[in-house]
Amino acid sequence: MDLESIELSYWVIMIVVGLIFGIVGFFIGRSMGNSGDLEISVEKLKATNSILQSDLELCRQNLNSEHAQPSQQLIKFDAKMAKAVLGRFVKQDDLKIVEGIGPKIEGLFHNYNIKTWKALSKTSVAKCHEVLDSGGEKYRVHDPASWPMQARMCYENKWKELHRWQEEHLHGKL
Questions:
Q1: Domain span including residue 56
Q2: Which of 88, 97, 121, 128 is the most exposed place for a label (fewest CB within 10 A)?
Q3: What's the number of domains the chain is made of?
Q4: Is the pLDDT assigned to residue 71 strictly greater than 50?
Q5: What are the residues whose beta carbons fall under 8 Å from the beta carbon of 154, sequence distance 6 or more?
Q6: In 91-126, which positions are buried (b, 16+ CB within 10 angstroms) versus exposed (e)?
């Protein structure tokens, strides 16, 4: 090998390496050129986050104001009216008053810390099915669709409406 051929190969290698780095640099620079788009996305996300934070704070304030006035939400149980309408003694928060709930099903609800008419009235039908499923196969035949509604009538001392509803519907089914 002579000196001139080494010099020529040196320059060819330098040109090829330069082209490769040039192409790689072009693509890297092109991807970095989108950083403005990323900054815009970050700003949009920050704005959305601040809106959501304010909504969350408003929800927390509403929740605190609801808990601050529990005395307005309490309804006094009227045992005399219940006995007069239903013709039997009614114990407060006795879930068995609800058509379709017996002692064993009441026990299942108690296991889920649903021990009052108010708690049952705020329970979803899906949760009622979950409670029944916890008792096994024999409890799946029950239809709890009306139980929260009946419990609400009990909690609100709407004994006439409850009695009329239970008389009109076969075994508490809707």
A1: 3-70
A2: 88
A3: 2
A4: no
A5: 97, 98, 117, 121, 162
A6: eebebebbbbbeeebbebbeeeebebbbbbbebeee
| Token pair for 155 | 């909690």
Which amino acid would we find at residue 137? Answer: E
The structure's pTM equals 0.57
Token match 């949009």: residue? 44
Q: Give the model confidence (pLDDT) of 93-145 as tens digits.
A: 999 999 999 999 999 999 999 999 999 999 999 999 999 999 888 988 888 98
Nearest to 155 by CA among 102, 85, 82: 82
**91 and 34 together in one domain:** no
Q: DSSP class of residue 122? A: T
H runs (alpha helix) in the chain: 3-32, 35-68, 70-73, 79-86, 103-111, 117-121, 125-134, 147-155, 159-168
